[in-house]
Amino acid sequence: MSEACRAESPQTARGIAQDEAEESQIETQPDSVPETGAGLLHACDDLLEQLRGIELPLSLPDVETHRERITGLRDQLADFVRPRLTAGAPLLVVVGGSTGAGKSTLVNSLVGEEVSPAGVIRPTTRRPVLIHHPDDGHVFASSAYGDWDGLDPVVRAHSGLPAGLALLDAPDLDSIDDSNRAFAARLTAAADLWLFTTTAARYADAVPWNHVKQATSNGTTLAVVLDRVPGDSARPVRRHLSEMLVAEGLESTPLFLIPEVRRTAGLLPDDAMSGVKSWIEALGANPRARRLVARRTLRSAVQSVGSRVDEVAASEARQARALHELTAAVERELRTAGDAVATALTDGRLIRGEVSARWQDFIGTGQFFLGIESSLSRIRSRIGAALGGDRDAAAPLGDAIRGGQTDVIREGLADMHAALGRQWRRLPGGPGLLDDDGLQQPVTERQIGATLREWTGHVTNLVREEARGKRAKARLLSFGIDAVAVVVMLAVAAGSAEKAGSAGNVGSAGKTGKGAATGSEGAPTPTETAAIAERLLDSLFGDAARRELTDAARTNLWARTRDLFDSARKPFDEAVAALDVHADRADRLREAGRRFQENV
Length: 600
Prior knowledge:
Region (Disordered): 1-38, 500-526
Domain Dynamin N-terminal: 93-137
Keywords: ATP-binding, Nucleotide-binding
Number of domains: 2
Order of helices and strands: EHHHEHEHEEHEHEHEHHHHHHHHHHHH
Radius of gyration: 40 Å
Helix content: 55-70%
Pfam family, one: Dynamin_N
InterPro entries: Dynamin_N, GTPase_Era-like, P-loop_NTPase
Shape: rod-shaped
Structural class: alpha/beta
Strand order of the largest sheet: 1-8-7-6-2-5-3-4
Number of helices: 20
């Protein structure tokens, strides 16, 4: 046998006899491998179900790495562990490695004819090619053997392989095609034995070695084929590769070298690949050795599940915490903006500009401050005269109040939306949920106007109900229900004369805004306006009824405004609701992992 084609491990050659000795040792330890039973199958299925529900949708740091780990664990359980708990499957040898490593040529040469296309166009292997002995066809046709969904392998029977052993030609681990890379990683995780195939020029490449580290940490049994080795490089290349294997704790890994030789009809000469071919044939001819490899890989894979489940659960818990922070930001900004708007609507700051001017038009600009009692009769007379004329003096005042309220609510909604956008851009996972321009604020000015008109109608109905059976009913009717309703609206906007500036709560607990502004020269301040409106309403309803009326109107305004803010938060709520993240899922996953380990 030439120097290049010898088989050895970095420490010593491993023969079948040694494998059998190890199997005998394992068989004396009944708890070292999982027993196939309903409990373990059920636990495996439950764990798979929990894993399938985890997506890690938030873009947290290192989330791609964590997603890959979830996919790897899920695929290994579905494609490798579960099938070996339910079926007497052949030993699955996956031939995988770097682009251009000669994987398909190796598979064809091991079988003895071309069963997997080889060529120079990359990627050559676009679909996995599975070759098995004809007697094992029923296993791979069964749904019990692996979850082949999406892989769509080419499955071929060939008598050139011994029964009980199957070869799978996998796509390139470093393929330019994303799906090919994903399939390659998935297939290596499904292997009983991974025949890692590389070349003298590329054996130290980072990408395949990262897969080697991951696969061995997950329990996959490994053998290495170093292809296309120039004759004068065999010894130093083998030495260096052996050192790399030792550094990774893989000193017992079988290592086969294939020299750079001319192919015949696309196949390697027998003498060039005699080492690896003899090893595969010996493995195929020895059921005990095959069983040893399969049980060793299964045992290692099962033992790795616990720590891997803990990693996944920790990732899901981080997602849940991030989601909680995003939701808390929505609640926080809703309270802040809602309280500010509630204060602005009812602390007197609306009593300025257009509202103040229309109020003076409504009651006249006579001597307000010479005595409220004497002024009330004149106010009532002016209101009655105004209402008896061609112009409805109440309508312009009502329009002005609603216009001011619209401005306050619109600005409050805009402030809340902008603040939420800023908060989410700073919070982990938030930027990925926002469009380039942020989420669209859905509440329109038309909706605000419609809400305020509905509130006006509600206040009018309150006045109408209060007027029934009152001794002052005639006086109310002489003023007009609509006019009195506008005075109630003004009283709500002006705030309480007794406690100016107090406000209720749109978001949650009430807050007090800045003091009311002083009116311009010749115009009453908000506090004075509140006093006039209250005394006028007292003269119509009485003090207690007036308080109940204005309180009811104020409370209803806050409730309707709160509904608008709830509508404005909807895009943020929908963005959160679309994420399949649940606070208790990490605990459910840990519990499923614990049950799996208990049944092993």
